[in-house]
Amino acid sequence: MPQAPAGRTTLRSPGRPCLLTLCRGCCCGSPGKGRDTAAATQLARLRAAAEMRSGARFEVRTSDCLGPCDHADVVVIQPSTAGRLRGGRPIRIGWSGTRGCTDDLLTWVAAGGPGIAPPPPALELHAFRPARPALGPRRARR
Q1: CA–CA separation, 58 vs 139, rounded Å?
Q2: 104 and 122 Cβ atoms separated by less than 8 Å
């Protein structure tokens, strides 16, 4: 076990599993946008799979708006501790509300997710990088 600096305790844990965070903010799963039924079905499927057959390979949670809304039904897949150690990074998937996309998500995280297993090819088409937020108002040159 690694030595901890004085006054600190180092704990060893088996590591965190993959984490799927589903957007349920203003556009994703919104009854006014007609996505409430599909979103509820998707969430139920993912939670059931996480509880029943994943062997603690992934967890599911919801969040307020993850943005951008033009990629509605956003899911962020965070790698497990093992995946992170192998170079895996969080990946954003847009337009994830279809049955096929949900199937691909389940297949990928059951295989280990980012850093452990490559994503299914169809899922790669849904991946996107969010635009960087503006750093503030630009000053006009004088």
Answers
A1: 46
A2: yes
Q: Give the number of residues written for the chain.
A: 142
State both tokens at 99.
Answer: 């049955």
Condensed to tens digits (0 to 9), the pLDDT of residues 109-128 reads: 989 999 999 999 999 999 99
Helix/strand/coil (H, E, C) string of the chain?
Answer: CCCCCCCCCCCCCCCCCEEEEEECCCCCCCHHHCCHHHHHHHHHHHHHHHHHCCCCCEEEEEECCCCCHHHCCCEEEECCHHHHHCCCCCEEECCCCCHHHHHHHHHHHHCCCCCCCCCCHHHHCCEECCCCCCCCCCCCCC
Query: How do 58-63 and 18-23 pair as beta strands?
Result: parallel
In angstroms, the CA 132 to CA 26 distance is 20
